[in-house]
Amino acid sequence: MIFTETKLKGAYIIDVEKIEDERGYFGRVFCKNEFDKVGIESNIAQTNMSFNPKKGTLRGMHYQVSPYEETKLVKCTSGAIFDCIVDLRKDSPTYLEWIGLELSEENNRMLFVPRDFAHGFITLKDNTAIQYFVSQFYAPGSEKGIKWDDPKINIQWPVDVAVISEKDNNHPYLNDQFI
Prior knowledge:
Blueprint (H helix, E strand, L loop, with lengths): L1 E4 L6 E4 L3 E3 L2 E3 L5 H7 L7 E7 L4 E8 L7 E7 L1 E8 L10 E7 L5 E4 L3 E7 L4 E7 L8 E3 L17 E2 L1 H4 L10
Parallel strand pairs: 6-14
Antiparallel strand pairs: 1-2, 2-10, 3-4, 5-12, 6-11, 6-13, 7-10, 7-12, 8-9, 8-11
């Protein structure tokens, strides 16, 4: 695996290092030893997936609060997404900054999301599936969200929102919460 730290300290783009032959290729998408060597939390408590039939489906911006903060390793297994994270660490020099990148079945990229980051994505193709490897068990009472179009963050989504849940569309703006 090839680890590239982003401008948001602790967040990594992870590329699969492919071993190719006449059958196709083989590559790792997770290795505790390699994660530990880079200093990335490697505890996985559960694996989740989502399937999104329509391009423009937005999910986010989600995070969990103490004591259930979680890391995520996000991989698009079919289709493509614009994956986005926001740094919510108040003591961070990149507090409230965001990055976004395309994850797709073609590029096999993954994004490691540290604790105390909001995470969301929008689908770039119909019939898109995503897997999330998370470090914490889901705790509904600790789930929070930020409005996907919060002007204080100003995420530049690359496609229009076609589908969004009522819950995600009703997350508060940053001015309305304790962050």
